Amino acid sequence: MPSNKEFNSASRYVPERQKNRFVKDTPFFTGSLFLLIGISYLSFAIKSLGRGESFYFLTSLVIFFAFIASFVMLRRGMALEKIYNSSKYAKAPTFPLKTIAAVLLAFSSTISAYMGAYTLFPSIMIGLAVVLGWYMYYGFDPRKDKISGYENSKSAERIMKLLLQAREDIDIIKKSADDLGEGDIKVSMLDMAKAFEKIVKHIEEEPDDYDRARKYLVSYLAELKSMSETFVKLDKRGKSEEMKESFLETLAESVDKLDSQYEKLLDEDMLDLDIKLSVMKKRLQNEE
């Protein structure tokens, strides 16, 4: 069974905390038209305030905020969807941001039409047309978890959170290596990161092997990440030389151990398959 420490780290970690990837996957221009339309309603609200038309001022302000919220949620929703689509295993986004944005946009369009020359029914039809157009162009949020191969939804969520945390830790090790510049330490740190990545990728493809590799991804990875960050800090202060040989030895031993663990995972998969084949052969023989 996983330790309490492991469960606590899982409960604290959420995919939305992958800031670097989230920012990278956020579309730059998508939804900009909604932002411009929202700004035009802000201008209308200011003019209404100047004329003393409090109703039009408040209504225009509400529509302005609805357009801005739609703009923000669309971009965030598309970033989360891109991360979801690029992952073999993933939980659906917690909040359907794109869908909420579509409803907000439909609501603001309906109010805007009703404030203009349209009666209630045509205004509602305009709002529904906005939802349909949104669905055809942007689509709605994915709502189905991609957890095929996992024992159940809880098991999938626990393992995926920890794998995401592992990838985040691996990225930190890579960044620490880059901060060192060229040299043996950098090469060894990148080799260690690759060794961890092989195990993570294997667990993503074979979730049943997670318990066998858990200690490497939970405790070893966290400790080696911390050591890497500390070494970089010492290097920046010019005090890393006396620790260089010891750190290199630790990195080399870690890579060897990780490669050995990876091969063991593959060997155990072969053993499991061999056992299953033997059992199946016996069953088929008994039925003859």
The secondary-structure element order is HHHHHHHHHH
Main sheet makeup: none
Distance between the termini: 41 Å
Please report the total strand number as a whole number: 0
- Arithmetic mean pLDDT: 77
The structural domain count equals: 2
Q: Please give the share of residues in helix.
A: over 70%
Rg from Cα:
27 Å
> For this entry, what is the oligomeric state of its chains?
single chain
Q: What best-fitting shape do the alpha-carbon axes yield?
A: elongated
Name the poorly predicted regions.
1-17
Strand proportion: under 5%
- Structural class comes to mainly alpha
Number of helices: 10
Descriptive keywords:
single chain; 10 helices; 2 domains; disordered N terminus; 288 residues; mainly alpha
Q: What can you see in these coordinates?
A:
By secondary structure, this protein is mostly helical. The protein contains 10 helices and no strands. The chain folds into 2 domains: 4-137, no CATH class; 153-286. Residues 1-17 have low confidence and may be disordered. It is elongated and about 75 Å long. Helices cover 79% and strands 0% of the residues.
Give a summary of the structure in a few sentences.
By secondary structure, this protein is an all-alpha fold. It is about 80% helix and about 0% strand. The chain folds into two domains: about 5-135, no CATH class; about 155-285.
